[in-house]
Specification:
By secondary structure, the chain is α+β, with helices and mostly antiparallel strands. 30% of the residues lie in helices and 30% in strands. It has a 5-stranded antiparallel β-sheet with strand order 1-2-3-6-7, sandwiched between helices. Strands 4-5 form a two-stranded antiparallel ribbon. The structure holds nickel (II) ion. The site of nickel (II) ion has 5 residues, from α2.
Length: 165
């Protein structure tokens, strides 16, 4: 995907539409290439720590954090890597276990073109890595071993045929 240089009204509309699409899906992230726009833009919305604590009816829902990242660059990664199950709106119905850095630092521009430095960890760091991958033409299945990837693709092809039929 190409870097964004114009922060005009059109871009703001695109960003708002992407946020809406992500929420409607529902998903925790959406990258512009997923809607056939080859630009370095992704939106992410997730409640940090959502994965860490068990929910019960007395726990109030954690506030969600919304990020709009433009021309992002991972500048630092943790030594620690963690495995986690991922899915993707671009390949519905499929999931796979992917190794990601536990924490990362990201340099990006916000929706108004101002530089931001972000530090994220845990599941949020995973979402960031997944979405930044999209901007580089990488899907989560590209991180799987060949054996697992073949299995997943086979399953997907089968699912797609069923849907078509
Ligand atoms: Ni995805």
């Amino acid at each position: 995907a190409k870097p964004i240089t114009k922060f005009d009204k059109e871009l703001q509309t695109l960003i708002d539409n992407m946020i809406e699409t992500m929420r409607e899906a529902p998903g925790v992230g959406l990258a512009a290439p997923q809607i056939n726009i080859s630009q370095q833009l992704a939106v992410i919305e997730y409640a940090e720590g959502e994965d860490e604590e068990e929910e019960n009816e007395n726990t109030p829902p954690k506030p969600k954090k919304l990020y709009v990242i433009i021309n992002p660059e991972i500048t630092k990664v943790s030594e620690e890597k963690v495995m986690g199950i991922e899915g993707c709106l671009s390949i519905p119905g499929l999931q796979g276990e992917v190794e990601r850095y536990e924490a990362i630092q990201v340099k990006a521009l916000n929706r108004h073109g101002s530089p931001v430095k972000l530090k994220v960890d845990g599941w949020m760091a995973r979402i960031f890595q997944h979405e930044i991958d999209h901007l580089n033409g990488v899907l989560f299945i590209d991180h799987l071993s060949k054996l697992k990837r073949d299995r997943v693709i086979k399953k997907y092809t089968k699912l797609a045929k069923q849907t078509a039929g």
